Structure formats: C-alpha cells, structure tokens
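Input/output pair, single chain:
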Amino acid sequence: TISANTDGTYVIRFTAQDNAANSNYDEFTLTWDTTAPTVSAGADQSKNTSFTQTATASDATSGINAATYQWAKVSGPGTLTFGTATALGTTILANTVGTYVISFTASDNAGNSASDNFTLTWILGAEGATCSTDDQCDINLDLQCISGVCAVTAAADVSASWYTAILCASS
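Output:
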C-alpha cells in the first residue's frame, strides 16, 4: 500500500535483492491527488425561454480542466431539459413556472469532485411556452393555456412589433 500526506508527483522505486546480493529495481511515477476541482455553476437566472448557462471548473492539483461534468435538477416544480448535461455549458429549458435549484458537478481524473448550485426562476411563459394552467402564461399579452401551450387568444390586440419587444426585453 502506498499513500502520501501531500498532493504531488512522486517517483516510486521498487528494489529486489536475492541471497547472492544481486539486485535490480523498477520505478514508476505516482501522482497523488486528493484535491477536488474548483467549480462555479454561474449566476442565478430569471428566464422564460431556453438559455445557455456556462459553468467554470479548474483543477489546480493536476493543472488540467476537470475530466467530467454533470448538470442536474436538485429541486423545482417541473421538468428541466438540458441540451448537453455533460458539458461545461448547456442550454436549459423548464416546462413549469417556478423556482428551481440546479447543480453543476465537475470530477477530475483522480475521482475527486465538487459541486455548485444556481437558482433558476422560470417566469410566466411567452407564446409557445409549455403550460398546464392559464396561470403559467402571461395574461398581459392575452395568452392562455391551450392544449398545453401558451397561445395568443386575442391576436388583434397584440401588435407584432410590441409583442417582439416584450419577448426580447424579458429574456
């Protein structure tokens, strides 16, 4: 059994000697790494449409970026869809209005891991957003939940340019 009390790179030598005092040795390099990567899931968000969240991860001990990444829902009222849940940056889409806690975990090549969370507040849906009740659609834009999708119910009252400006300002 080999262990170390300080992270670093060590050269380990094994020497064997027979009864006639003949000896030989072999060496190998051991990297001892017990330090987890440093991670940040990024800033809290308030969204109503798919967006990209990019985390940061570094591993000071090995001098390389973390080996694996994972995004996951910790809590929240609905389902989250991740574009690539195993990437440093991913798109995120929620299907229900509410507050979500989302975790980002990075693991290094030695198996050390660290996590960080951010909070997503999924706000009232714009046209085309998934819904289950009218309360999840923005009634100020005359949207109503129809067949599971926020849809305009009074299209004549909503000018296209005003509606587009509202969508751009809210995301």
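The longest strand covers residues 8-17. DSSP finds one helix and 13 strands in the chain.
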